[in-house]
Amino acid sequence: MATFKYISKDMSAKTIRGTLEADDRNDLVRKLKEQNLFLVSCQDVTKKTVNQYKMKLNELSAYSREVGTMLASGLSLIRIFSIMFRREDNKKIKKIYENIYIKLQQGYTLSAAMEAQGVAFPNLMIQMYRSGEASGDMDKTALTMSNQYSKDHRIKGKTKSAMMYPIILIVITIAVLLIVYLAVLPSFFDIFKNVELPLITKINISISKFLQDYWYFVLLIAAGLVVTFIALLRVEKVRFQVDKLKIKIPKFGKLLMTIYTSRFARTLCSLYTSGMSIVNALNIAKTTIGNVYIESQFDGAIKKLRNGESLSQAIKDIDGFDIKLTSSIFVGEESGRLESMLTTLADDFDFEAEQASERMITLIQPLMIIFLAVVICLIIISVLLPIYTLYNNVGNM
Q1: Which residue ranges make up each domain of the chain?
Q2: What is the 3-state secondary structure (H, E, C) of 52-105?
Q3: Model confidence over 142-179: pLDDT tens digits?
Q4: What sign has the CA pseudo-torsion 96, 97, 98, 103?
Q5: Of 366, 363, 233, 243, which Cα lies nearest the Cα of 296?
Q6: CATH, range 2-49
Q7: What would the DSSP string read from start to end of 8-33?
Q8: Please, which residues have CB within 8 angstroms of residue 214's CB and are 6 or more apart in sequence?
C-alpha cells in the first residue's frame, strides 16, 4: 500500500489537501469519492513518509507523558494526536505526530502507527505500548515509559558530564601546548643558541621546531587517526572488544556496569510487569543495554531459560552486570515476589547509577587539574632552567 499526498475538490469546489494510503491511483480516487471529494492531483510520497529522525530520550519522555496524561483524562487517541501535532514546534517531531494521526484515522493501533515511523521510536517503547493495548492500561504504560526515559535522560546527562570534563581539559592542555610550542618557545631559540641546555629543554625545543616545520603533517596524521578510530568502531569485532574493555577500566568500568545493570533492570521490570513472558522480555531488554559484549552473552541465558532454569541461574554468568542483580532476582524468585523485587531493584540501581556518575565527576576533576598543572610546570621549568644557567654565566663573567 502506498501513501499519496493529494489535492482534491469538494462538492462546492473548495480545495482540500491531505494524505491518504491507497493501493494505487484508482484506489485513491475511489476512497476520495466515498468522502464526496474529487481528485485534482496526487503524488506518491511513500518513501518520504518513512522517518529517519530518531527521537531523543527527553523527547520520548515528553511524548509518553502527553499521551499518558491525555489518555487518563479520557481523550481518544485520534483527538490526542490532533492536539499534539498541531501544537508541536519541532518540524521533524511534528511530522511524526501528523503521520501517527493519519495512521490512527486509518484504523491502525498506536503501536503499529509508531512502528511505521521508521527509526523514530525504539523497539522497547513500541513493544511496551503493544502490551498496554493488550492489557487495556495504555495510560499507565505511557506514564511508566515517560518516567523510564526521563531517568535514562538524567543518568545519560550525568555520565556525559563525567566524560566531558576530562575531554575539555585535554583540549585546553593541547591548546596550551600548541601556544607554547608554536609561539612562546621559538622566541627563546636565539637566546639559547650558545647555552648548554638540559635534556628537558632540548626535547621541548625539538618538538617546537618539528611542529613549526611539519604542522600540516601532524594535522593530517591526527585527522587520519580520528577517522580510522571512528571507522574501526563500526566494525563489529572491534566494537565488541572496545565494549569489553570499557567494563574492565578501573573506576570507570564500575560506573558503566552500574549504568548497564540499571538500564537492564528497569527495562526488564517494565516488560515483565506489563505481562510479557520472561523470555520475550529478555530478548527486548538485552537490546537496550548499550554494550555489544554484554548483549552477546544473552543467547546462552535465553537458552538456559528455555531449558527450564530460573532467571537468576540463567543470567548469573553474564559478565558486565553488578553481582547484586543476580542475588536480588534469586531472592525475588524464592519469595514468589519477583515482580516487586524487579521494581525495587530498578529503583535501587537508578539511584546507584546517579550516585556513581556524581562520584566519577568528583574524582576526575582534581586528577585532570593536577595533570594540566604538571604539564604546564614541566614546560615552564624547561624554559627557566637555561635562562637561570645563562644568568649565572653572565654573573660569573
Answers
A1: 2-49, 57-150, 152-397
A2: CCCCCHHHHHHHHHHHHHHHHCCCCHHHHHHHHHHHCCCHHHHHHHHHHHHHHH
A3: 999 999 899 889 888 877 777 777 788 888 888 888 88
A4: positive
A5: 243
A6: 3.10.20
A7: EE-TT--EEEEEEEESSHHHHHHHHH
A8: none
Q: For residue range 40-90, what is the model confidence (pLDDT) as tens digits? A: 888 777 655 455 789 999 999 999 999 999 999 999 999 999 999 999 999
Which fold, 152-397?
A: Receptor-associated Protein (1.20.81)
Separation of alpha carbons 263 and 255, rounded Å: 12
Q: Are 123 and 288 in contact (CB under 8 A)?
A: no
Q: Grid cell 564500575 — which residue?
A: 254
Same fold across 2-49 and 152-397: no
Is residue 87 exposed (0-12), middle (13-18) or buried (19+ Cβ within 10 Å)?
exposed
Q: Which helix (H) or strand (E) holds 136?
A: none
The model's pTM = 0.69
Q: Please state, in angstroms and as integers, the Cα–Cα distance from residue 320 to each residue in 259, 287, 331, following that order.
A: 10, 14, 20
Q: Which three cell numbers stand for residue 98?
A: 501528523
User: Hey, what's the cell of 303?
Assistant: 537458552
CATH (residue range 57-150): 1.20.81.30
How far, in whole angstroms, is CA 245 from its chain's centroid? 19
